[in-house]
Fold each of these.
Amino acid sequence: MEQTLSIIKPDAVSKGVIGKIIDRFEENGLRVAAMKKIKLSSEDAGAFYAVHKERPFFGELVEFMTSGPVVVMVLEGENAVVKNRELMGATNPKEAAKGTIRADFATSIDANAVHGSDSLENAKIEINFFFSGQNIH
Ligand code: GDP
C-alpha cells in the first residue's frame, strides 16, 4: 500500500468536475484517505512548488494555483504514486493519452486539472505539507 498526494487544481474545481475526477480514482482502486478544499496563499504555492523556483513558468504557476480554491487529497492504494500518474496523463493535455484526466478535463499546460506526486519520496513530503497524520484515515 502506498499513499500519494493529489490536488484538483483551480480550473477543474471551477468547472465543477471534482466528483468526476474523484470517481476516476475510486474506480481504479485509489481510496481517498484525506481530503480538504482550500485556497492557497502565494507563500503556500511557492513553497509547495519550490523545486520549480528557477523555471520561467514559476510565476505563472503560483498565480494560477492561487487563482481559486483547490481540493487536496491523500490517495491510498497499491502502487498509488504510479497509478495516479497514469490516471492523470501527461503534463501537457495535448500530449495526454485518451481517457486520462488531463485529456478529458484540462485545457492547457498550466490549467491542467490535477497535480500528483511524482515519486514515493516526494509523496511523503507533499502529504506532510498539507496533512497531519491524525487527519489521514
Ligand atoms: P506534473 O508533475 O505533470 O504536474 O509536471 P511538472 O512537475 O513538470 O510541472 C509542475 C506544473 O507546472 C505542471 O503541472 C504545470 O501546471 C506547470 N508547468 C509545467 N511546465 C510548464 C510550462 O512550460 N509552462 C507553464 N505555464 N506551466 C508549466
Note: The two ends are 13 Å apart (CA to CA).
Amino acid sequence: MRPKISIQNLYFTYSDETEALKNITIDIPENEVLVLFGPSRSGKSTLLRLLNRLSDLTENAKFQGAILFNDQDIFAPGVDVANLRRRVSMVFALPSPLPGSIQDNLTYGLKMAGIRDRALLEERVEDSLRQAALWDEVKDRLHHSAFALSGGQQQRLCIARSLALEPEVILLDNPTSGLDPISTSIVEDSLVELKQRYTIIMVPHSVQQMARVADRGAFLLDGELIEVDTPAALFTQPRDQRTEDYITGRFG
Ligand code: ADP
Ligand code: MG
C-alpha cells in the first residue's frame, strides 16, 4: 500500500546554519498515529511544519530531500499551498479560537472556501464537533462566544475547526500543553477516534503520552531520526542505546 506521506532524505537548515533535520526518511501509512518524540530542540516542530509547508514562512532556510503526500511532491512547482494546508492541517499547541461564536469558528474556513449552503454548514458543524468529542458539551450554545469555553474545550474546538475543512492528515504540536489531566485524557481519547478517518502526526507532551496514543513513535535527537517503532517495542527492546536512555529518563 502506498504511504499517505513519504519523507525521503530530508535535510533542513535554518538561516543561522542550525542543521535542524539531518537525513530523515520515513513512510507514514494512512490512519496511523505517528508520534514524533524527543528532547526539546531535536527538530520535532521543524519536521511537523515542513509537512504542510508552514516552513515556507521561514526566510533563508535551506532544504533538501523530498516529501510526498499521496505520491505528489509537496514542493513541486505549481503546488497550491493553501489547498495543501487544508488537506494537511495544523492544530497549534495553545488553543487559539477566533473571535465570535462556536459556530462562527467552525464555519469561517468553510465560508472562505465558498460554501454558503446553510444545511451543509450546519451538518459540517455538527459532524466536526462530534468527531472532536465536543458536540454534547456545546450543542445547546453554538451561538455563545468560543472564549467562554474551558481550555480543554477550546483545544477540541480548534481540532474541530480543522476537521470541518475535511483534511486528510492532522498535525498536532503538543496539543495538550497547558491542559488539566481530565481535558488531556478527553483530547487523547478523541485522537484515537480520529484515526479511524485521518492520518495523525503529533508531537506529544511526554514520553508517557507517546505510549498512550501512538501506533508508532519516532525518536528524534539533534535533528536525526534515531528509530521508529511501536511504543511496546520502544519500551521493551529499543534498538538504539540513546532511545533507551531517553525513554528511561536518563536525559531530558
Ligand atoms: P523541537 O520542536 O524538537 O523542540 P525545533 O524544531 O523547534 O525542535 O528546533 C530544532 C532546532 O532548530 C533547534 O536547534 C532550534 O533552536 C532551531 N530552530 C527552530 N526554529 C528556528 C528558527 N526560526 N530560526 C533558527 N533556528 C531555529
Ligand atoms: Mg517544538
Note: The pocket of magnesium ion (ligand 2) is lined by residues 44-45, 203 (CB under 6 Å).
Amino acid sequence: MYPFVYQALSQRVVFGSGTIDQVGDELARMDLAKALVLTTPQQEETGRKMLEALGARAADLFAGAAMHTPVEVTEKALEQVNAVSADCVVSIGGGSTTGLGKAIALRTDLPQIVIPTSYAGSEATPILGETKDGAKTTQRSMKVLPEVIVYDVDLTMSLPAKMTVTSGLNAIAHSVEGLYTQDRNPVISIIAQEGIAALTRALPVIHERPDDAEARSDALYGAWACGTVLGAVGMALHHKICHVLGGSFDLPHAETHSVILPHATAYNERAVARELTPVASIFQSESAALGLWTFARRLDAPMTLSELGMKQSDLDRAVGIMMNNPYWNPQPLLEEDLRGLLDDAFFGRAPGASL
Ligand code: NAD
C-alpha cells in the first residue's frame, strides 16, 4: 500500500424516491425556519412546488441561478437573502444552482440543503467556481460544503436524455481523474470505481428509456459517488482543460467534459496505465481511453469541440492559457502534445491519435 492522507468530509445524505418530502423535516432538525429556495429560470416551477411544500419554513424563491456562478447573480440573490432575513438556502437543480447556494454560503455562512437534479456532483464538494468580468476562478473552502444533500430520484426523471448522458460523463470524469491523482487514497479509489460502474450500467438504459426508474436511481447513486471523489481529492489535466474551455471560451460544461475525457485520459494513460486498469476493465476495453470514447459514441454524446462552438483558430490560444499556470499532472505537460490533444478533440479523432 502506498502512503496516503485522507480527510473525510462531513455531510448528511438522504437518498431515495420521494425524499423531497423530507426537506421540511431536515430544516426542522437544524432548527431552520426561513429558507430561500434557489433554482434556475428553467426550473422555477419545481422551486414553486418546494416553496409550497415547505409552507411556513419557506421565505421566498430566487429563480435566477446561471451557469458558472456569475458574481452579479450572487449579488442579486444576496439582496433577497437580506430582504427576507433567510436563515438557510435550499438549492434545487444542477451544478449552476448548487454553485449559487455555495456562493451565498461563502459570504453569509448560511447552511445549505442541496437537492441535485443533474449528475454534476457539486453538492458533494467544498469547491466553488465563480465568474467575474468573463474570468472564472475556483476556490476550495469548507464554508461552501453543503450541510445536507437530499437525493430524490424522482426529480432526475425530467433530465433530458441528452443532458443525462453528458452530465453522467461529467461525473465519470471526476472518478477517472480521482483514480490517478497525486493525493489519491484507497477508499476514494473504491468509491471512484463504484461510481463509474454504476453510471456505466445506468446511462445506456436511460439513453433507451429515460423513464427507467431503476437506472435513474443507479445513475444518481453513481453521481453521488463521483461527486464524493471530486470533493475528496485533487484533479489534473482533464479538469484543467475543461476549466479553460468553459471559463475562457464559454463552452458548455457537461458537454465539454464529455468531449475531452477520452483524450485527456489517453494523454495520461501513458503515465498511469496501472491506476486506470479498473476503468479499462469496467468498459471491457484494451485501454481506459478507448473504452470511454466507445462508450460516449454509443450514447450519441457530442464527440467534437467544433460541434460545441469552439473555433479552430482559438486552439493555440487555449493551449497558451493551459500552459500559463502550471499544475500537477502525472504525464508531463508539453505544449506540442496538448495541442495534439485539442486537435484530436476538435475533429473527433480516436483518443491518442496525435500523441
Ligand atoms: P446546470 O446546472 O447549468 O443545468 C443545465 C440546465 O438543465 C439548467 O437549465 C437546469 O435548470 C436544467 N436542469 C437541471 N436538472 C434538470 C432536470 N432534472 N430536469 C430538467 N432540467 C434540469 O448544469 P450542470 O451540468 O448540472 O452544472 C454545471 C455547472 O456546475 C457549471 O457551472 C460547473 O462549473 C458547476 N460544477 C461545479 C462543481 C463544483 O464542485 N464546484 C462540480 C461540477 C459542476
Note: Residues 161-347 form a domain with the Dehydroquinate synthase-like, alpha domain fold (CATH 1.20.1090.10).
Amino acid sequence: MARMLLSAPVARIQVLPETLSNQIAAGEVIERPAAVVKELVENSLDAGAARIEIALLDGGRKLVRVTDDGSGMSREDAALSLQRHATSKLRTKDDLFAVRSYGFRGEALPSMAAVSRFSLLTCERGASHGTRIEVEGGRAGEPRDAGAPPGTTVEVHDLFWNVPARRKFLKRAQAEQAQCIDAVLRLALPRPDVTFVVREGERPIAQLQSGPQDAVLPARAAEALGREVRGHLHEVRSETRGLKLRGLAVAPQVDFGSARNVWLFVNGRAIRDRSLTHAVLRAYGEVLPHGRFPGAILFLEVPLAEVDVNVHPAKAEVRLADPRAAWDAVQMALQPLLRHEPRVAESHAAYGSHQPELLPQAKSLRYLGQLHASYLVCESEQGLVLVDQHAAHERINYQRLRAAARGPVQPMLVPQVVELSAADAARIAGARETLRSLGIEIEHFGENSVAVKALPPPLQGGLLGPLLADLAEGLTRVDDDLFKRAACHASVRAHDALTPQEAQALLDALDQTDYGARCAHGRPVVAAFSTAEIERRFGRDYAPHSHAAPKEIL
Ligand code: ADP
Ligand code: MG
C-alpha cells in the first residue's frame, strides 16, 4: 500500500472542478423546486420586473419556468451570470451591509444549472434580438441569438436528473407545488407593486394582481392564510426605538393547527425567526385554545445598519442588533387587537389536584348556569362541578368521529363546494385518501375548489374550509391527531353562550363518553370541588353543626 502511494504521487488537495463545486453549492441553495422558484423570482424582482409568471409542471419537479418583464441581460452578462460568484448586485464589502437587493451571492443560476437541464432566454429593452444559453448538468453551450420580448425567461427542467440521491428526496407533485406557491407568496406579500401569476401546466393556480397596498395585501393574505380569514383581518402597527412594524393579524376567532401561518418579513424579506414567531404566539397567549396557533403577516422595518442579512445561504434568517426592540414592537402592535378578548383557560395544573377521585356519575349532575360563557356550572351529590364546554364537546366529537370512521360513509344530500387557497387545495388533493379513511369524501371541482360529497355527522354544519385546510396540513396517515383536529373544529368554543337546553344536551352527550379522561388535546374536561373542600374554604369544617354561627357573634 505504502509503496503504491509513494510510486504514484498525487496532490492530495485539489481545486474542485467548477461543475462539481457548483453541484455542492446547489446542495445548500437549491433543495427543491420551491427553492428554484424563490431564486428565480428574486432575480426577476431585482431586475425591476412588474409582472412575473411562474409555470410549473409536476409541482416543479419536471419544470420551473419563470418569465419576467425586467431589465434583461446583454449577451456578455448572460454568459457571466452563469459563472459562480458573478453578480451585478455587490461590488464592495460595504455593499454587503447595505444590501437592498434579494440576491448578492451570485450563486443561484450556476447552482441550479449544475443540477438540471437549464435554459436562459434574455433580451435587453431596445435590443434588436436576445440571447439564449442552454446548460445541461453544468456544461454550458454557446450563447446564441434568439428572438425574445424584453425581459428574461429561465427554465429549469428535470431538477436533480444527474443527482439521483437528491431527486429521491423530492416529495409528491402536490406537496412540491404547495411549497412553490408558498415561496411565491413569501416574495409577493411585500410587493403589491408587482403582479404574480402561478400556473401548473395551463391552469392558473394563483393570480396576484398588483395594485394599491391597502387593496392588495388583504387579497394576498387570504391566499397565504386561507380564504376563511376574510373579514377577520385587522391592520396592526407599532413603532419603537427606530423599528417600525405594520401588517395584518387574524382575529383570534380564527385559529390554525400550526405556527406556519405566522409570516414574518424584515425589510421586505421573508425570514424565519424563532424569537419573533414566539413573540407573536405570546401576544395571542391563552386567547387561543390550547394547541391552536394564530395567523399574522407582519412587516418589520429596521435601519439597514441594524440588521445582518448574510447569515444564511438562502437568506432565510437575519440577525438583528436589537432583538428585544423587535419583540416589543410585535407585542405593541398586537395588543390593541387582543386586549379586549377574554382569556380562555387558566393554568391547567390548577385543575389537576381537584380532578381524579371526585368525578361525578352521569350525572347526578344538575345544571346551574354558565360561567364566563366557557364553563358549565353544575351541582353534584358530592359538591360543585365545572365542565369546560369546549373540552367536553371536543371529547364527545372525538369519540363520535372514531366511531363514524369505522362505519359506512355518510354521503351528503347536496355536495358542498369549498373554495380553498391554492396551497391548501394542493395539500387537500394530496390528502384525499387520508380524508376518505376519516369518512370525508372530496372531489376536485375546478380551480382551487373541492366538492365535499360525504362527511361524518359530527362534522356536518361546521365551516368546511378551515376544517379541510387544517386536516390536510402535514398529515399523511390516519392517526389520532387527525381525529383530534377534526373534533376540535366541530366543537363549541369557549365564549359561546349556550342555552340551558344546549348545555344539558352537552352534559347528556358527555354521559355517553369516557369523559373522565381528558379532552382530545390532553386538557381536563371536568373539575370537581367536593362539599368538604367548599366547607373548609368557608370555615365550616370545625364545628359538627357548622351551619350555626360562631358563638362570639351571638
Ligand atoms: P445573484 O442574484 O446573487 O446576483 P444569481 O446567480 O441569482 O446571483 O444571478 C447572477 C446575475 O445574473 C445577477 O446578479 C443578475 O445580474 C443576472 N440576472 C439573473 N437573473 C436575472 C433576470 N431575471 N433579469 C436580469 N438579470 C438577471
Ligand atoms: Mg439571485
Note: Residues 439 and 456 are 6 Å apart (CA to CA).
